[in-house]
């Protein structure tokens, strides 16, 4: 079974600065997807960025980028030019590519609460 | 906005009762998954439905059951509620084979 670990329960960053959130995972599979989701107080999970394991190039989406280290099973999220609206819970998630059904299952970490200060 | 809506937003039930939570997916989404998110934890996969059949299940007992309807709506039913069932319940819809899951805003269930 796959596991996802987020070792930082809380992080704080000043507005306009850069912050990196850590995530490690464990799997015996060679092909899979990794995601970062944002959960604001409204509770709705919002996809921030996704990475396909077979792609060596790190994914980027505007101010958000990842550092994907497949051999180390590490998947960190970097937020540049932090904004007040970035304050939320951030969850790292894993999705297998094997079969159907539970292949759509997302395995989440325990989350990191990001505070953004002025 | 993900186009996925859940009802109700909050619910209080008594231990031993039964509850039904509802989810309305985007048109064209043929899969729906349900997750339980306990306070301070990440969401845990309950099960997934595809074309109105359960086709994947997490580590949850049979008293957690679901239905998926042709009109892109679905239900999560929980029987014999326990205090530990208190959590945020999220549904996520999508198309089988696509990577992105679209989440609703969740139903906060409190069991007293």
Walk me through this protein's architecture:
Chain A has 118 residues and is an all-beta fold. Chain A contains no helices and 12 strands. In chain A, strands 2, 5, 6, 10, 11 and 12 form a 6-stranded mixed β-sheet that branches. In chain A, strands 3-9-8-7 form a 4-stranded antiparallel β-sheet, with no helix packed on it. Chain A is globular, with a radius of gyration of 14 Å. Chain B is an all-beta fold and 112 residues long. Chain B has strands at residues 5-7, 10-13, 19-24, 31-37, 44-50, 53-57, 64-68, 73-78, 87-94, 102-103, 107-111. In chain B, a hairpin with a 7-residue loop joins strand 9 and strand 10. Classes of the chains: A mainly beta (118), B mainly beta (112). The interface between A and B is medium-sized, with 25 and 29 residues.
Shape of chain B: globular
Number of strands of chain B: 11
The overall strand count of chain A is 12
Strand content of chain B: over 45%
Task: Note the topology.
The complex is a heterodimer of chains A (118) and B (112).
Chain A lengths: L2 E3 L4 E5 L4 E3 L2 E3 L5 E8 L6 E7 L7 E2 L2 E6 L4 E6 L8 E9 L9 E3 L3 E6 L1
Parallel strand pairs in A: 2-12
Antiparallel strand pairs in A: 1-4, 3-9, 5-6, 5-10, 7-8, 8-9, 10-11, 10-12
Chain B lengths: L4 E3 L2 E4 L5 E6 L6 E7 L6 E7 L2 E5 L6 E5 L4 E6 L8 E8 L7 E2 L3 E5 L1
Parallel strand pairs in B: 2-11
Antiparallel strand pairs in B: 1-3, 3-8, 4-5, 4-9, 5-6, 7-8, 9-10, 9-11
């Amino acid at each position: 079974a796959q596991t996802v670990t987020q070792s930082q329960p809380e992080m704080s960053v000043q507005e306009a600065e850069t912050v990196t959130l850590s995530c490690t995972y464990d799997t015996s599979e060679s092909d899979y997807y990794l995601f970062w989701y944002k959960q604001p107080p409204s509770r709705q999970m919002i996809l921030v960025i996704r990475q396909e394991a077979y792609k060596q190039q790190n994914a980027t989406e505007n101010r958000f980028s990842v550092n994907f280290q497949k051999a180390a099973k590490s998947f960190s999220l970097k937020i540049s030019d932090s904004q007040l609206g970035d304050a939320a819970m951030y969850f790292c998630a894993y999705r297998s590519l094997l079969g159907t059904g539970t292949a759509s299952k997302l395995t989440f970490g325990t989350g990191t609460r990001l505070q953004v200060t002025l | 906005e993900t186009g996925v809506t859940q009802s109700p937003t909050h619910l209080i039930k008594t231990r031993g009762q039964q509850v039904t939570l509802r989810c309305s997916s985007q048109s064209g989404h043929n899969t729906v998954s349900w997750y339980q998110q306990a306070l301070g934890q990440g969401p845990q996969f309950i099960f997934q439905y595809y074309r109105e059949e359960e086709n994947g299940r997490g580590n949850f007992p049979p008293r957690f059951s679901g239905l998926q309807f042709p009109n892109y709506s679905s239900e999560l039913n929980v029987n014999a509620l326990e205090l530990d069932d208190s959590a945020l319940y999220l549904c996520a819809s999508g198309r089988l084979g696509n990577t992105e899951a679209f989440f609703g805003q969740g139903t906060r269930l409190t069991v007293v």
